[in-house]
Amino acid sequence: MRLLNLKPDRTWSFALALLPFLALLIAYTMGSAIRLAENPNDKLLPGFNSMVEAVKHYALQPDARSGIYLMWNDTASSMTLLLSALAISILIALVFGIMIGLLPVMGATFGPVVAVMSMVPPLALLPILFIIMGLGDAAKITLIVIGTTLKLIRDVALRVGDLPREQLIKAQTLGASTWQIGLRVVLPQILPRLIDAVRLEIGPAWLFLIAAEAIAADSGLGYRIFLVRRYLAMDVIIPYVIWITLLAFLMDLALRLLQRRAFPWFAGARAA
Amino acid sequence: MTGIVFDKVWKEYGSHVVLERIDLDIAPRSFVALVGPSGCGKTTFLRMLLGEEKPTRGKILVGGAPLKAEPDSDRGVVFQRYSVFPHLTVLANVMVGREFQQSPFLGKLFGRRRREAADEAHKLLEAVGLKGHEDKYPTALSGGMQQRLALAQALNRKPKILLLDEPFGALDPGIRADIHVLIRKIWNENDLTVVMVTHDLSEAFRLGSRVIAFERPRNRPEELERYGATLDDLSLAEAMSKAGASITRDFEVWPKKVAGPLPDIAKQLDQTSGEARS
């Protein structure tokens, strides 16, 4: 049988998916064991025991000085920033994206400026934001919003443009106004597509958050990683990175489920 | 009663002439079939009638008044594809016209008015043979059923003109025959002038009360730019034999087809639904 016709069933798919993860795990364990055998105080590739200890210390015991659980506190503070920034981005992107995509006048007015602005590297704006807005949360949220909104706007505008011309004509022959078309024809069809776009922007959003936290913060997952870096505390950094990855993965999963549950028509429409 | 008049209409894109000197008088309640080769401008003609395109010269009159320059609820339309909204159920697809009409801000009805709109939609769906599919999404319907839905949706606002853009082009022959019966019934029972674009001559002659052929009389490459299609009303035999005709004539399909007297549709629908119940 040709290789391209060989399709794994569910069990095999699962097993195959696990394979690369296991390989990574084994490679790390071996590397760590070799280094620790040479020097028990090696900090570069800590063993699993020390990582578990570190997580216990950060997640399950209150900090000796402040009395808070550091890892949960970091998570809450990072997630608050990330989610509020994404919420703002999505709202702006929906309003402007639909206007630019649906109304030629708005497209002519805002299309070019959005196209140019989306080429500005957001991290280059970070110093400006810190200067203008101070070192607080506002600057960090703004950075994430700037970094994700423009791409989302462009994506929404393109998706609106992709809607068949026939649908917009049909709606007009049913007597719909521009507002009604936006509300009942365009918006509900854009929402599931927006979810796809947001899923792709989760990665950049984390990047901007951690970059901002690394420079100026007093809590947050990125802040902690860069803080303990000074002590080469790989036993803290590695679990934190895994935790951030897991959070991002769960956000992606949640969005995918939301898309399937809230827009049951979408799978069929996308296939058609 | 809504007649349509094309008064010396030209359509040009830049220096490219698509349609030239279209003079046409469409009687109220006629069923006009537009035929012609691809790229001959029959779709452009329909788009002008829709209000999606403006004539470069000349004017279009509907019921004596100039045509509204944008698509509106006085003209219903069914396209070959994408005529229905994929995110709405079958029932909601039909109701949405009423919702646009009665709820300017939300475009959505609630309570008693919603029930009335739903009742009306149920009747229309029954009339087009989609009873029992109300809660499905359009992608779960076959191509023929989607076109039936598109018809019901278009009829919901009771347009005076129904424009069909190759509506049955993608359907299997058997399904196409069924939907031909439906469209003739709709034409016969409503105060409706139908204009249909088709590339299928036999369909044109079977359905139309009048067949109009669009042809480019000058077909040399250097001429294509500067000369558009003109009108030709033809009998089937003539349409088959003539390739580069440029004469404009009026031809009515023989034997003469005339839409039946307008029945009281509401009453009739009540009767049929009554029969279905008993």
Can you tag this structure with a few keywords?
heterodimer, A: 272 residues, mainly alpha, 11 helices, B: 278 residues, alpha/beta, 36% helix, disordered C terminus
What do you see in this structure?
The complex is a heterodimer of chains A (272) and B (278). Chain A has 272 residues and is mainly alpha-helical. Chain A is built from eleven helices and no strands. Chain A has helices at residues 10-38, 48-60, 70-102, 104-117, 122-133, 137-162, 165-173, 178-215, 221-228, 234-262, 266-271. Chain B is an alpha/beta fold and 278 residues long. Chain B has helices spanning 42-50, 90-102, 111-127, 143-155, 173-189, 201-207, 221-224, 236-241, 265-277; strands at residues 4-13, 16-26, 31-35, 57-62, 65-66, 75-78, 161-165, 193-197, 210-215, 230-233. In chain B, strands 6-7-8-3-9-10 form a six-stranded mixed sheet, with helices on both faces. Chain B has a four-stranded antiparallel sheet with strand order 2-1-4-5, with helices on one face. In chain B, helix 2 packs parallel to helix 4 and helix 4 (143-155) runs parallel beside helix 5. Chain B is globular and about 60 Å long. Residues 235-250 and 272-278 of chain B have low confidence and may be disordered. Classes of the chains: A mainly alpha (272), B alpha/beta (278).
